[in-house]
Each structure stands twice: as structure tokens, then as C-alpha cells.
Amino acid sequence: MSQFWLAFFTKHAFQIGLYEKLPRFEYAYDYRFINWTRPPDDTKYTAPLMFTYKGVRGYDGIRAYDNKEVSPDHHHMEYLINNDGRASHLYGKENLLKFPSESKAYPYADHSIFTSSNRGGIHYMFDNPSLKDRLQQLGAKKDSMFRCAYAFLFRENQAVESITEPFRKRLLTPHNNDTAGHGKQVSPLRIGIGIRAGDKTFDPAFDASLHPSVYQKHTSCASNIEKTFLSKAFPSTAQDDNALLKYPWYAMSESLKTRQMLADAFRQRIVVDTGNAYFHGYIRVAETLRDVNLIVHLQQ
User: Fold this and answer.
1) Label partner for 71 (CA 20 to 30 A): which of 86, 184, 186, 188?
2) In 3D, which of 128, 70, 67, 133 has the Cα closest to residue 99?
3) Cα separation, 188 vs 221, whole angstroms
4) Number of Cβ within a 10 Å radius of residue 252
5) Which helix (H) or strand (E) holds 4?
């Protein structure tokens, strides 16, 4: 989503390209308002943007286009994978309204910008002086920029819809707390809990070693959100913890053990998939992308 907004502010068309065995977004999503699909690019454009470069996984040397094959006057690349320093500078300090070049000879609109990233940078944009007025004109907010871009770009396809239906149905079913027994209708509260337990959890042996501490700060935060929500909806009425338990939580994590522990600990209110072991990027695309889809629906 950060790269969509980068394209938006720099007045570039936005397309999603993938390389090697990474699953294409088209496997799970249809485009909505713009066609963001893109055929595979020549490796002369994508090679410096790959995590494994020059035969080295996580190559941390200089990455640049070969000027003999790719014109630097019309092509620009940004490698942001695990590169928080560059991401914070790009999104938070660069003049994105005239990026990547303010050269009169090669105005910024003449550049094709290739980026690869696994880091979000939307929050940095709100500290960027060049975007202050533009963000204000858009009425943009930190907590809605991701959601807006997602809703504009993606519509889950039928395969994903069929997988998400049981989860969606439970999340969208009216709950008692939507009126809280006081005859006052309030906006439904649905809380999503995303727990990044780490790539090591793709190893079943490591995953099996996890303890409840991996999720406890997240569930504590969810409980505090509920209490704050109800205290504002019904400021004159004390809410007890038993009433709060009526709200559903949707939980997601790459860790199967974490999801199973959550299901055991919060059986009456948790919505979580405990039947699928997820894999890193190559297979079971629909299951893993389902989590992103549902968490955005919660925000909407």
C-alpha cells in the first residue's frame, strides 16, 4: 500500500509485478478501479530488487542498475526489503511531489520507478513536509490510508470469498453488545489481532515450543480497546468484563501453535483458523491472503 501511495504522489501509474516463485496477487484478487496487473519484467530490471542478488541471500552490498542495459535517466529503483532506514527517509523526508528527480533535463514524470519492499511506510508520510498540504487536501489519516488504498485496488475473487465466508459470517453477525442491553444502538465493534511470531515458526519444532506470552500483550490490548469503546458509548454505565466478552476477536498469525493457543484460551469469542499450517510466500496463497482481506473488512 505504501508503494501505491508513492505512485499516487509522484503521478505514476501503479502496477504490481512479482518475480521467481512468489505468488501473483491475481491468484486471490481481482482488480477494482484500475488494472494493476503486470507481465513479468526482464531480469535486467528486477535482479537488483531481489532479496537474493548476485547469488547471495540478503545481499547487503551496492544495488544499482547496469547503465549499459538500463538508462538511469528514465529508470529508478528503490530496494526497501528489510531496509527501514531507507524507507523512513524515502517516505518521510524525500520531496515525493518531485521524485525521483528534479532535473530539468529529465523531469520526474519521465522515470519508471521499480521498487521492492516488505516494509510499510505510510506512517512516515505524515511527517513529510512535502506532503503536508496534499494529505490535508485529501483528508487523509494514518489509520485509514491503508484501508482506502486496499479498497480502491482489490476485490477478493470467488476462491477467496468461499474460504472467508464462514469467518465473515461470524464476524458480521449482530452481537448483544451492539446495543449493550441499554436500548442504544452503537457501531459494531470487531477487533482484529495480528501476531507476527516470526519466520522461525514455519519450523514445526520451533512453533511447538511457543508459550502464551507470544499473544498475551495483544489480547490485553484488545481488552483495553473494548473497555475504551464501551466507556465512550455508555459513559454513565459501568461495564464489567463478562459483558466485554461478547465481542468477537479475529486473530491471525503465521504461527499455527499461536492460533491454537488463542482458540483454547478464548474459545467463546475468538474467530481464528486452527486447521491450516501457513507457508512462506510460495504455496497456500488463498489461506494466507485471507487474513489480510478479513482484517481490512474489520477496519471498514
Assistant:
1) 86
2) 128
3) 18
4) 23
5) helix 2-9
Compute the radius of gyration of the chain from its Cα atoms.
22
Q: What is the DSSP string of 24-82?
A: PGGGTEEESSS--B-PPPPHHHHGGGSSEETTEET--S-----TTTS-TTTEEEEE-TT
Alpha carbons 11 and 107: distance in angstroms, whole number: 12
DSSP state, residue 252: E
pLDDT score, position 189: 77
- What pTM was computed for the model? 0.77
**What number of H helices and E strands is found in the chain?**
12, 9
Question: Mean pLDDT by 10-residue block, N- to C-terminus, for the chain (300 residues)?
Answer: 92 84 83 91 90 90 89 88 91 90 58 87 93 93 91 92 86 61 60 91 92 96 87 64 66 95 91 85 46 44
Burial call 111-142: b when 16+ CB within 10 Å, e when fewer:
bbbbbbbeeebbebbeebebbeeebeeeebee
2-9 vs 84-92: helix axis angle to the nearest 10?
Answer: 40
Nearest to 7 by CA among 40, 47, 34: 34
3-class DSSP state of 250: strand
Q: Which residues of 23-47 are buried (b: 16+ CB within 10 A; e: fewer)?
A: bebeebbeeeeeebeeeebeeebbb
Predicted pLDDT of residue 29: 92
